[in-house]
């Protein structure tokens, strides 16, 4: 078993949460999301991001608008819907519970 496979699965598990957090700060263009995720070492490619954005939109969590660009074709900017905001709040609670649980387990001293 390779550690890299587990690391990739761990990142995939929190990718949706991270994307929703990025979008929660305001309307955002997909390439800006990719840039931030890459800077955070989430290692995401367009082939992963766009299907996930479509799935989140189809679930009613996201909406988008087309904005004219001075340097090319119109750009699609994503924003959270009211349902998406509520969903993100639940994910934040779950994330905090996971952090607390993981910290509890990893900080336990070995018993002899």
UniProtKB/TrEMBL annotation:
Domain Transcription regulator PadR N-terminal: residue ranges: 19-89
Q: What is the top-level taxon of the source organism?
A: Bacteria
Q: Name one Pfam family in it.
A: PadR
UniProt xrefs under InterPro entries = Metal_resp_DNA-bind_regulator, Tscrpt_reg_PadR_N, WH-like_DNA-bd_sf, WH_DNA-bd_sf
| Signal sequence segment | none
Descriptive protein name: PadR family transcriptional regulator PadR
């Amino acid at each position: 078993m390779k550690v890299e496979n587990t690391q990739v699965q761990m990142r995939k598990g929190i990718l949706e949460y991270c994307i929703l957090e990025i979008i929660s700060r305001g309307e955002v263009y997909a390439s800006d999301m990719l840039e931030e995720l890459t800077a955070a070492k989430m290692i995401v490619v367009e082939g992963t991001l766009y299907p996930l954005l479509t799935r989140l939109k189809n679930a009613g969590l996201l909406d988008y608008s087309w904005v004219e660009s001075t340097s090319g074709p119109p750009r699609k900017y994503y924003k959270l819907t009211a349902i998406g905001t509520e969903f993100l709040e639940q994910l934040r609670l779950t994330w905090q519970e996971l952090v607390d649980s993981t910290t509890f387990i990893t900080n336990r001293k070995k018993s002899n």
